[in-house]
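User: Can you model how thymidine-5'-diphosphate sits in this protein?
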Amino acid sequence: MGDHQHPAGHGLFISFEGIDGAGKSTHINGLADAFRALGRTVTLTREPGGTPLAEKLRALVLNDAMDPLCEALLMFAARRDHLRQVIEPALARGDVVLCDRFTDATFAYQGYGRGFDLDVLGQLERWVQGRDDSDRLRQPDLTIWFDLDPSVAAARLASARSPDRFESLPVEFFARVAEGYRQRQRGDVGRFARLNADQPVSQVWRSVLSAVVSRGWLPAQSLS
Ligand code: TYD
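Assistant: Here's the modeled complex, given as structure tokens:
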């Protein structure tokens, strides 16, 4: 084990969040490369999705019309399978798990965006992320939040590929989603690293790296 390990024998769980158009993807891949260069095994995954079943649920939830409760249940059903089949085994092996979205997205999109009952989401979170070996829920060790003004994100998306059910929603929806992320951060400040996503890619990348370096999970030389 090197100097930059999370507590011995345990993996590291990092999630990436932000409204559509915030530009997470390239940085997730970059961070995977940075950890691999240190000799860490990286599990790169996403939500909804990450297992054969959860990918089927993703296709449904991103394309088929349904009511908000159904949407929330499918997000958490996909998450349950993903946790059991992929995330928990990877963390037990000591992998670095990089996950493109996790439960904060459900609070932000279904809760704040759609207006779905936050208490019900909290109950689902407890059911799905409860653990046998700990009183604490499974949560990411770090959530990197790409914070971007919804109107800037909308302009970026306008030139992108064909939108899914969420991407086609109006800017007001994304303003509520962004507020959802702010509230989630307020509720768990230590877990979040907020970064300004309205900067050149190289600047955003520096912010991503420094969030990880400052926690001691990558060496300081990564920043130079
Ligand atoms: P995203 O992760 O942005 O993937 P892509 O880059 O392929 O579009 O898309 C997933 C969409 O699902 C995004 O619009 C947010 C939404 N979503 C929710 O509404 N709730 C959730 O719990 C999750 C994980 C995602």
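A couple of observations from the model: Residues 20, 46-48, 62, 75, 100-101, 105-106, 109-110, 166-167 surround thymidine-5'-diphosphate (CB under 6 Å). The domain at 12-216 is CATH 3.40.50.300 (Rossmann fold).
User: Helpful, thanks.
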